[in-house]
Amino acid sequence: MTAEALYAVARDATPDASVDGSFETITIDIPAESWVAVAVALRDDATTSCRFFDWLSAYDAVERGLAVVARLWSVERRHGAVIRTHVPRSDGVVGSLTGVFAGAAWHERETFEMFGIGFDGHPDLRPLLLPEGFEGNPLRKEFVLASRVAKAWPGAKEPGESDADLAGAPPRRRRARPPGVPDSGTWGVG
């Protein structure tokens, strides 16, 4: 199956589809309101038969919002497609694929938690990985990593070491020997 045939099926489901063939697997960009319809079309069309749901995730596309990406695969025809849509950074919502692929439930919960993207129609959209009471979406670009707040970057090499400690001579470190090599005073070289 050619990329054009996969794209044709997606274009039949939504005329606003566009294709990106810069990688080995075809990527079909679609509007958020056509997300479920294109997934159903790629699954049900006899020429595509993309009945295997591989994965779903997102990434922060900064100026374009948040991108939601899913990979669908046809085991019998040995081809696949990635479908991608963009949602706004605030209150971004896309239709849930749980009614199309049962395996999408876990992926959508993770994406909801890590990016804050809602999935309309998901049966149990609640936090999955982070501790209870955690605030924020850790995979968004604007999320501040606690480790960078506690330790300046680039900078200190060891915990507790600051730029003020480096004002004088840098601390000398004991040179480590490889495992199994004795101290130089105990063998032939003096």
Describe this structure in words.
The protein has 190 residues and is α/β, with parallel strands linked by helices. The protein has a domain of 128 residues: Beta Polymerase, domain 2, CATH 3.30.460. It has a five-stranded mixed sheet with strand order 1-2-5-4-3. The protein has a two-stranded parallel ribbon with strand order 6-7. The chain is extended.
Topology:
Elements: H1 3-13, E1 18-20, E2 26-29, H2 35-44, E3 52-60, E4 66-74, E5 79-87, E6 93-95, H3 104-115, E7 118-120, H4 146-150
Parallel strand pairs: 2-5, 6-7
Antiparallel strand pairs: 1-2, 3-4, 4-5
Helix pairs in contact: 1-2
**What is the total tally of β strands?**
7
Mean pLDDT: 84
CATH architecture annotation of the domain at 3-130: 2-Layer Sandwich
Order of helices and strands: HEEHEEEEHEH
Backbone CA Rg: 25 Å
Which secondary-structure class do the elements indicate? alpha/beta
Could you tell me how far the N terminus lies from the C terminus, measured between alpha carbons in angstroms? 71 Å
| Low-pLDDT ranges | none
* Strand arrangement, major sheet: 1-2-5-4-3
* Number of contiguous helices: 4
Main sheet characteristics = 5 strands, mixed
Helix content: 10-25%
Looking at this structure, what is the CATH superfamily of the domain at 3-130? NADH:ubiquinone oxidoreductase Nqo5 subunit
